[in-house]
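Re: duplicated header lines in exported structure tokens

Our pipeline writes sequence and tokens for each protein into one text file. With two proteins the header for the second block appears twice in some exports. Here is an export where it did not happen, for reference. First protein block:
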Amino acid sequence: MANVTLLMTRPRVAAERFIQALPATLKHRVSVCYSPLLEILPVNAEIDLTRVKGVIFTSVNGVSSTLGLTQPCGLVAYCVGKATADAASQAGWSAKMMGETARELIDTMLASRAVGPLLHLSGQHVRGDIAGELTNAGCLVRRLVVYDQKLLELTESAQVLIHEGGRIIAPMFSARTARHFFEQCPQDARLHVIALSPAVAKPLPNMPNLTVTLCNRPDTDNMKREVENVLNLLCRVESAGGAQ
């Protein structure tokens, strides 16, 4: 069996949640190296819900960063992704999953004629302008930053792993993380990257030993399936090589 390492660059809690959700048969076939490239830092935010009819969450981090800062009071929370909707529901919001991407959320909210004013409780760094697009389309939305995403360097163990040239599968969940990751990688790094979406794959460089797999859908279930697919491929390649 191939000696394969899953290199997890998500914030530690999210990375551990992803690994725990993998099938047991898959977890036993890989080792895991945690090297978070983002640290989630709450910011001083005053959340006033007195004049809004609901909120928007685009990540679990948005939900967790508001805990203790406000009371949901039965308000609807429009969410990107099942994990975000589940977290919002557990926090007391009337959660509605509106799609797996910000684009899907916008289109679904407009199609369902969502009514504002709404509050987008977001991170400092976002892709696109949800509040601006919805407001321009007639649904008033204001964005409020409730957490920051501080970039971190690769850990020493991750750097050693990359430089040793072992078999590495690196799931990438955001374009910003992917860009930051490859700024720290040597050009000859041997990597098998799985990008959550075309947007995540866009900043990936052209490197001789880099292979890129794109998820069919930008969700955790598809990422897990692609991890298993890439792992099976690596094992077949190794077995074929050993038989020659």
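Second protein block, exported in the same file:
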Amino acid sequence: MSTPKPFREVPHRGLITIAIMLATVMQVLDTTIANVALPSMVGDLGASADTINWVLTSYIVAAAIMTPVTGWLADRFGRKELFLTAVVGFVVFSMLCGVAWSLETMVLFRLMQGVFGAAIVPLSQTFLLDINPKERHGQAMAIWGAGIMVGPIIGPTLGGWLTESFNWRWVFFINLPIGIIAFLGMAAYLPNIARCVRGFDFFGFAMLSLGVGALQLMLDRGGDADWFSSAEIWIELGLAISGFWVFTIHVLSAENPFIDPKIFLDRNFATGLVFIFIIGVILLASLALLPPMLSTIFGYPTITTGVVMAPRGVGTMISMLVVGRIMHRIDARLLVMIGLGLTAQSLYTMSGFSPQMDNWLILTSGVIQGLGLGLVFVPLSTIAFATLDVRFRTDATALFSLVRNIGSSIGISIVSVMLVRNTQINHAELSAHINPFNPNLWAASPPAAVGDPAALSQIEGLVNQQSLMISYINDFKLMMVVTLVAFPLVFLLRKPQKASAAAPAAHID
């Protein structure tokens, strides 16, 4: 057993943290900020309503493929050098996205933006763990988690405001000042980490890229292609299964695989991957449901929707900042359980939504869910790496981000499919009762009962509204069940203070 190296205090830790978080928020915002600008891009780029979605798909697939290779790139070229290159490349291609003159150029620039942006989140988490002593990891993960989880919440609102006030191109131009400040701060103060050159397992990377890329493409394209009624989706599913299967066999049998399988022997990290997958499902799936619900059923404009959803982000930030300070006093596993309980409670409250309610129920459920997710995310991000050998840290943070993103994509796809299918089913069931033989119809609207077109049109609107509302409620109930199912996983986690100290700290020059 090797003797652990004492932690060496890093100068300008506060400035480094600010610079890292600026880069992180910039990248995380870009995953959602462009969504609301898509309708405005259609005319300028000569695209159609179907093809414009490739602006999102290209970014998601490129980022998913490049995320796992972050660890190898960091070891080969240096963490600091890779981080600075990622920020520069991300900002440059953001500017090119802002001046794109056709759909083809936009898709190309977004693809490259995803290639460079993939490393930013894993490296930000790695550096925050590196520059802080172990007793401050909870606070560091609280700051990091605030950027990761609040970014997607404010993204659509910020994107809508920029699009309405200026132009859709400002959705990308806004990255320039943020990127410059982040780059200068990191270039000046980010410590140099000793490199560890290792061979590149091209076959393993190719198989993992095939699996991840095909899966992300299937999840993103599924809704437009009508899922498994399309040959495209079946091909992508086959490629995803084949890629992951061959990659798994290769990792277990190869001498120097792309990802060392020993990383999965750490119980905390393996359980943390399952947890972060569930968090990805709940966080972004609920964020994908609420804006269209508020717009379609309640008639809220984009800015009002953002204001109503803002308390969710406030709740998340409050809980993260509080839990970062109390983690060394309270068992982190207890905090995770409390967070899961609050999240389940908020989803139960959301299952009671109705078109007749006011904003209060939306605000309170949002605050409770934000508090709950924050209580889960920070302890989880700390425990997952507490017992892991430091030499696996960069690979581990890349896998952590990848699994969270895959969970988000799967969650959004599932709730979107269920929303469409359940709306059709609910509409058919409710419409079956709209007939002249139903006394309730005579009591509610005699003109509709005798076939008045205007009255029937009004009834049809109510049926559509109720069908959609019931479908949203079913989705919220599903996410509540997923949250409750995650409870037993808490007992698989080990307390951080019992972690082995055998692994040496990362060497900071």
